[in-house]
Amino acid sequence: MLTVLRNRAYRHLFTAQVVALVGTGLATVALSLLAYDLAGRNASAVLGTALAIKMVAYVAVAPLAAALAERVPRRALLVAMDLIRAGVAVGLPFVDRVWQVYLMVFLLQAASAAFTPTFQATIPEVLPAERDYTRALSLSRLAYDLESLFSPALAAALLTVVPYGWLFGGTAVGFLGSAALVVSTVLPKPAPVEREGGVYAKAAFGTRLFRATPRLRALLALDLAVAAAGAIVFVDTVVVVRDHFHRPAGAVSLALGAYGAGSMLTALLLPRLLARTGDRTVMLPAGYALPAVLAGVAALTATAPSGWSWTGLLVGWALIGAASSAVLTPGGRVVRRSAADADLPAAFAAQFSLSHGCWLLTYPLAGWLAAGVGLPVTALLLGLVALAAALAATTLWPATDPDRLDHLHTDLPAGHPHLSGARPTPAGAWRHGHHYVIDQHHHHWPRVSPTH
């Protein structure tokens, strides 16, 4: 897996990602402490609102940022977003009103919503070979999981010697380091974009791409399954551990660590597994595993706590992490396969926006249901959401899903460059086959049999 780090451009980009993630993790801890200082016992409400603002920024800003990425050099955009995030981090220690927290969080996450899809779209251009790109996706998944484990530990160590406000300084250093690494990288020149329309039409293209491509609709359904299970982990772990199992605060970290361990182990195994099987073969079973595990969680939390049920919960969290990683890691391969090179920024921005829309739905559900009807019912209901999503993905994603599709063109004139090699039909259309994606010449998915 580490062989892809021999590529200098990717090595610098991956290091930039890791450095920025560590800074983000420090900011998460510091923001929690800042909210407590400002709101006291209402800190959870402040953080919940900030999390909702984060998701709204992700959903709303990412498609517009993709349209902007077509007009601005990609490296300049990445560096600018890092500098904005660093500036926000520097300003956070001086915030003394809750509404200022909300404003700064929106600015920070809006910059992230522009940075992340652009970064994701750059990786397949730096690593065009599918084997290398798969390894890069697994490394990226590992980076996210390690950040969730390492950053809180680093923050705890730093807080023994400095006030929490200094953690925002560490965040700024992380983003500045990321910007420096991106500046030092020579990025491939992206393919020219030929789409018509203004910035809003271009921003909407990624969503249209998902709506028109069967495997991308299935990917979105699987994202909903991951969000349904993940919301239980991220929202309700503290309640499960403290109120049901009556474990100390440190056990919360242990439970979240089990989730991260399952995710990391799967990310390590996926490159070899995907080399032998297809994305669909890995992702759909993982999607079905999520509701099965949630049913087990419902049973565990409906019974009196014991040593075996605590062990069962840790295993369940690890399985949710493993299944989520088995869906999320190959997701980049599915997006890459489904878009032209010039449209990758729009495709990744749409995936980023739509997938976070799923979390925007499941986060409050996990919180409100747990408070209103209890943990067992919450796990069952979100398990039903995950099951429905997995069934939808199976229906939407054809079992036979080749890249090359035979199709007709009825709207292109004879002699058009795209019709080179096409065969005329008696009805006056043109037939040919190639790697099929939705673009300026293909607006709908063909209803014809594939050719091999």
From TrEMBL:
Domain named Major facilitator superfamily (MFS) profile: residues: 9-401
Record-given protein name: MFS family permease
Record's subcellular location: Cell membrane
**Keyword Protease part of the UniProt annotation:** no
Q: Which Gene3D superfamilies match?
A: MFS general substrate transporter like domains
UniProt entry keywords in alphabetical sequence: Cell membrane, Membrane, Transmembrane, Transmembrane helix
TM regions (residue ranges): 12-34, 46-69, 101-121, 218-239, 251-270, 282-302, 308-330, 342-362, 368-397
**Chief localization class?**
membrane
- Origin species, per record, is Kitasatospora paracochleata
Membrane topology is: Multi-pass membrane protein
Domain of life according to the entry: Bacteria
